[in-house]
């Protein structure tokens, strides 16, 4: 498998940034199998420093499968491990999201899903995934779902995540 280790940016996607555009009517597709993301970071001091390991832009269909992991990644704002934007779909099978963090007051220490007000949905399907030991000083230590986001989880473990805001240590939905 592939490995992304100790990469950093002041923008989005410490290791990988997938961008897309609303209004085209066509979603881009990306897939990772048996991949490791570790020690990546978004170090910028603004609210666009999201997705410590992976930032998924607008209208992207992303699939992460196999024995894959997102560990010890960090972002200044949203998605210490993974940040997913409006109109995108995230499918993960057999993936561990562990020990990721937010360094400011953002949401989703492990995974952040952000839809949009007015209807652009952000979807995630997690199967046999572990989301553990992630940290957020804001909401959703493990997983945060904001503004019209949806998640379906099957046989997942969400444990030992921390939110300092007192809301959603494991999962936060807004």
Topology, element by element:
Layout: E1 3-5, E2 8-9, E3 16-18, E4 28-33, E5 36-38, E6 41-42, E7 54-56, E8 60-65, E9 68-71, E10 74-75, E11 82-84, E12 89-93, E13 95-98, E14 101-102, E15 111-114, E16 122-127, E17 130-132, E18 135-136, E19 143-146, E20 149-154, E21 157-159, E22 162-163, E23 171-173
Parallel strand pairs: 1-5, 2-6, 3-7, 4-8, 5-9, 6-10, 7-11, 8-12, 9-13, 10-14, 11-15, 12-16, 13-17, 15-19, 16-20, 17-21, 18-22, 19-23
Overall description:
By secondary structure, the protein is mainly beta. Helix content is 0%, strand content 47%. It has no helices and 23 strands. It has strands at 3-5, 8-9, 16-18, 28-33, 36-38, 41-42, 54-56, 60-65, 68-71, 74-75, 82-84, 89-93, 95-98, 101-102, 111-114, 122-127, 130-132, 135-136, 143-146, 149-154, 157-159, 162-163, 171-173. The strands form five sheets. A six-stranded parallel β-sheet has the order 1-5-9-13-17-21, with no helix packed on it. A six-stranded parallel β-sheet has the order 3-7-11-15-19-23, with no helix packed on it. It starts with a strand and ends with a strand. The mean pLDDT is 92.
Compact overview of the structure:
With 174 residues, the chain is an all-beta fold. Helices cover 0% and strands 47% of the residues. The N and C termini lie far apart (35 Å).
Distance between the termini: 35 Å
The low-confidence parts are none
Overall mean pLDDT: 92
Order of helices and strands: EEEEEEEEEEEEEEEEEEEEEEE
Radius of gyration: 14 Å
Lateral strand order in the biggest sheet: 1-5-9-13-17-21
Per the principal axes of the C-alpha atoms, what is the gross shape?
Answer: globular
The number of distinct β-strands equals: 23
Tell me the strand percentage band. Answer: over 45%
Largest sheet features: 6 strands, parallel
Q: Which bin fits the share of residues in helices? A: under 10%
What's the number of helices? 0
Structural classification: mainly beta
């Amino acid at each position: 498998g592939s490995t992304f280790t100790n990469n950093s940016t002041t923008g989005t996607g410490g290791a990988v940034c997938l961008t897309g555009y609303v209004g085209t009517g066509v979603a881009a597709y990306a897939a990772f199998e048996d991949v490791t993301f570790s020690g990546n970071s978004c170090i910028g001091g603004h609210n666009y420093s999201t997705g410590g390991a992976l930032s998924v832009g607008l209208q992207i269909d992303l699939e992460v499968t196999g024995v894959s992991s997102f560990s010890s990644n960090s972002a200044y704002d949203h998605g210490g491990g993974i940040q997913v934007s409006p109109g995108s779909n995230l499918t993960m099978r057999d993936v561990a999201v562990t020990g990721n963090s937010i360094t400011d007051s953002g949401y989703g220490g492990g995974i952040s899903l952000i839809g949009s007000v007015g209807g652009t949905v952000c979807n995630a399907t997690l199967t046999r995934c572990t989301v553990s030991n992630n940290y957020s000083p804001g909401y959703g230590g493990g997983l945060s779902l904001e503004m019209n986001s949806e998640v379906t989880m099957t046989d997942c473990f969400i444990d030992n995540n921390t939110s300092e805001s007192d809301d959603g240590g494991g999962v936060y939905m807004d």
